[in-house]
Automatic annotation (TrEMBL):
Signal peptide coordinates: none
Stored InterPro entries: E2F-assoc_phosphoprotein
Pfam family, one: Eapp_C
Protein name per the record: E2F-associated phosphoprotein
Record organism: Microthlaspi erraticum
Region spans: Disordered: 93-118
GO cellular component: nucleus
Upper taxonomic lineage: Eukaryota, Viridiplantae, Streptophyta, Embryophyta, Tracheophyta
Biased composition (Basic and acidic residues): 103-118
Length: 151
């Protein structure tokens, strides 16, 4: 009438649980997060254009956004075949007067206020050294002398 079988059963259950643990889920989770970050960085949009050097036609940027007001200007975070000239510093205020003059007072104030004292470095094509844009202190490239084409 004595039945000590209960304690034996418990031990074998514990062993089965140990073998079924698989911590592999965490890695695939990281991949998804990385992809979401990329989409967020581009505001959920794909590239507006592919940009090329106007002198040698080397591709300099595959993912960029067109400027809302100056349609010949593009900004980008990831570039190719470009060099930042860190020996030269440009003043943000050196915008050509012809462009500033056409702007309304409001947008002119906004641009000048936020850009006060900002340091910009020229960006040149690494193939032919033609100046194609500037690199700002927030590590964003602004291309103004490039040839855009369909992405
Ligand atoms: Zn070039």
């Amino acid at each position: 009438m004595d039945s000590p079988a209960n304690s034996q059963k418990t031990v074998s259950d514990d062993e089965e649980i140990d073998y079924s643990i698989k911590p592999e889920f965490y890695d695939s989770d990281l991949d998804v997060k990385d992809e979401l970050w990329m989409v967020k960085k581009r505001d959920g949009r794909t590239s507006d254009a592919v940009l090329s050097c106007p002198a040698c036609f080397t591709t300099v940027c595959l993912e960029c956004q067109r400027h809302e007001q100056y349609v010949t200007q593009y900004r980008a975070v990831f570039v190719v075949n470009c060099k930042v000239d860190e020996n030269r510093v440009l003043q943000h205020n050196s915008t050509p007067p012809s462009i500033v003059g056409k702007r309304t007072r409001d947008s002119e104030k906004q641009e000048a206020g936020s850009a006060d004292g900002e340091r910009l470095n020229p960006v040149v094509c690494s193939t032919c050294s033609t100046e194609i844009g500037v690199f700002d202190s927030e590590e964003i490239y602004h291309f103004s002398n490039v040839i855009p084409s369909e992405p």
